[in-house]
Every structure is written in structure tokens, then in C-alpha cells.
Amino acid sequence: MRISIQRTGDNLRVRMRWDANRRRRLIAQLALWILTIQAAIVAVWAIFAPAAWYRSFPGFGLDWVAMSGPYNHHLAFDVGAFFLALGAVAAAALFYADSLLVRVAGAGWVVFGIPHFIYHAANRPDGMSTGGFVFMLIAALLLPALGLVAVLAAPTERIALRDPAPMTFRLPNRRKP
């Protein structure tokens, strides 16, 4: 707990702030923010432009999905819908700041990310360079890794402790001689 004291005129204002699990909460929130933003980008791209997503995901001149086989509109759209759903769960965990929701959202990313990583590790697309393959595996591994960070870093209490309201004390008048 941090205590700050501030003098304002004839008053003394005392404020207490809970620091318990602050670092853990920030780490879990950072992991979920990264996953939420990434999910939103993939979701919007794959839902509103599935053919473009298929041809050029993840962008930056790379085309990992197109190397895996022929275009399938249903698959591309479903990927977008899936990322939208998982991103919404992560966003809800961030919004409500409940550590149980943080762990559930993180677990969802782990459950998705591990089979996703195993698939990509076992199925190297023809024509993909070794560097591109390694980069793809690192990107695929980040999803369950960040989910695991959120699960393990989430504080143990369900709801983050709220700071108590500040207290103001009136100081006795000091008379000048």
C-alpha cells in the first residue's frame, strides 16, 4: 500500500493506494492488450476482405496462408470470426479487470495457440524459406505464450482491490505572533 499526504491550504489530504499485485496485473493486461489488438486486426481483415487476407497474411510482403493451399472463402471468414470472438473475450477481461476473466481469456488463447503452433511446426509450406518458416513459428508461438503469461500473471484476487476514498483532515489554525 502507498500512502500519499498532500497539504492544501488549511487541510491535509491523505490518500491510500493498494499496490498488491500491481506488477502482475500490468503484465497480464499488457499480454491481453497485445492479443486483443492482434485479434482485432486479423478479424477485421479476414471478415471484410477474406481474399486479400488469404493472399497476403500477415502482410509486410509475406503470404503465409496462400502458401498453404487454395483459397477457401469459408475458411478465411471463419478465421476472422474466430479471432473476433477470442478478441472480444480478451477485451471483456480487460474491461472488467477481473482476474478470473483474465485467466479464462488467457486459457482460451493457450487452447487455441498450442494446436495452431503444432500444425504449423509439422506442416512447412512448399516454397517457404527457412527464415520465413522460423518467423512464422515464432509468430504462432507468441499466441499461446502471451495467453500463458496472462494466466500465470493474473493476480490471485477475483476483483482488483479498489483504492479507498481519500480522507481530508482540517489542520488547527496557526496564529502568527
Description:
It is a single chain. This protein is α+β, with helices and mostly antiparallel strands and 177 residues long. Helix content is 60%, strand content 12%. The chain has five helices and five strands, in the order ββααββαααβ. The strands form two sheets. It has a three-stranded antiparallel sheet, with no helix packed on it. A two-stranded antiparallel sheet has the order 3-4. Strand 1 and strand 2 form a beta hairpin. The protein is elongated. The model has no long low-confidence stretch (mean pLDDT 87).
In short:
With 177 residues, the protein is of the alpha+beta class. The protein is built from five helices and five strands, in the order E-E-H-H-E-E-H-H-H-E. It starts with a strand and ends in a 7-residue tail after the last strand.
The shape is elongated
Largest sheet report: 3 strands, antiparallel
Radius of gyration: 24 Å
Estimate the strand proportion: 5-15%
**How are the strands ordered across the major sheet?**
1-2-5
Keyword list:
two-stranded antiparallel ribbon; 3-stranded antiparallel beta sheet; alpha+beta; 5 helices; 2 domains; about 180 residues; about 10% strand; elongated
Topology summary:
Layout: E1 2-8, E2 11-17, H1 22-48, H2 50-56, E3 58-59, E4 62-63, H3 73-96, H4 99-122, H5 130-153, E5 167-170
Antiparallel strand pairs: 1-2, 2-5, 3-4
Helix pairs in contact: 1-2, 1-3, 1-4, 1-5, 2-3, 3-4, 4-5
